[in-house]
Amino acid sequence: MSVAEFVAQRLINEILPFEHTGSHIMNNNPTDAQIIALLHESFQKVDRAYFSDHIGEALARRCALQMYPSGDENIEKYNAQINGFATAAVALLYDNRLFVANLGDSRAIVVKQLNGDLSAIQMSKWHDPTDVEERVRLSNIRAENIEPPTRCFGDFFRKGGYKENPSLKMALCEPVIAEPSVHGSLPVDDSLRFLILINGGMVRSIMEENPQENVNIKIASLVAKEFVQQRSMPVMARAVVDCIAREHQDAFTQNRLPLNCKRRREMVMTFCCIGDFALGASIQSSTLIDEGDTMDEVRVKILIVLNAVVCGFFSHL
């Protein structure tokens, strides 16, 4: 089971009262502050569970092998088992209030329409050394020399095992953390049309093709255009991703991409039409995965319980 699979199974069940008793916070008309606290706690609880429950045995055997080397076992076998990580974006729609929590480079975009004009609102944070707040955090712990993402699930060699990482061993504490950025609440009314969750590969494909492009507006415009033209949501999702892929390919053939860009990344978009949800209509969604030249693993889960909706987007890297 990959990091993404483990997190997808555990995290949403932590957030929604799917199998919880009446004492769970989501069963008791939670306030915004309580929901935000729940999202923070759930992300970190699941990350701890991944290390203890899922790869705990592999970590223990690896530790024993380090202390008592054996010719019968290869430590690289255990390194491979504990090396993965996953980014995530989770959108929680509760009582006509929208919250988004994210780790890493997954992005959430809300599209609103007022008086015929579309606006794109980003409800996520880019956890990367280029972000000012992340750069300050990393500088304070002497971990400036780090590759993105700087927050994720899993990733033993940049968390508990960071002292074994040559580029991070001088850090004062674990450089990579599972503390999410949480945005919300955003009232859900009839002006809110779409919720779009995209992975970092899609963001970077747009930025590589045109560094001056506003990614949020680009995605929102494409979704709005295709939503009108296409007859089904899966076809619409494919049309949006195909458009970005074609533009990236054109930039490649015209030598307009950065020199270090040798391939197109996997692109994933989860699209939810939630404009009518506030009026009692059912939520509609579609997910499109374009593998590009890689085989990264993505898990998307959408659960509806009572008046709450959770859409979880988990990318295993």
Structural key phrases:
317 residues, Phosphatase 2c, domain 1, six-stranded antiparallel β-sheet, five-stranded antiparallel β-sheet, 25% strand
SSE succession: HHHHEEEEHEEEHHHEEEE
- Uncertain stretches: 276-283, 293-308
CATH topology descriptor:
Phosphatase 2c, domain 1
Radius of gyration: 20 Å
CATH-assigned homologous superfamily: PPM-type phosphatase domain
What proportion of the residues form beta strands (DSSP E)? Answer: 15-25%
GO molecular function, one term: kinase activity
Domain PPM-type phosphatase: 1-243
Organism: Ascaris suum (Pig roundworm)
Keywords: Kinase, Transferase
Could you explain the architecture of this structure?
With 317 residues, this protein is α+β, with helices and mostly antiparallel strands. The protein has a single domain (3-283, 299-310), classed as Phosphatase 2c, domain 1, CATH 3.60.40.10. It contains eight helices and eleven strands. The protein has helices at 3-15, 32-54, 56-67, 75-82, 132-140, 200-209, 215-229, 233-253; strands at 85-94, 97-103, 107-114, 117-122, 153-154, 181-187, 192-198, 267-273, 284-290, 297-305, 308-316. The strands form two sheets. Strands 1, 2, 5, 6, 10 and 11 form a six-stranded antiparallel beta sheet that branches. Helix 6 crosses helix 8 (233-253) and helix 7 crosses helix 8. The radius of gyration is 20 Å and the shape is globular. It comes from Ascaris suum (Pig roundworm).
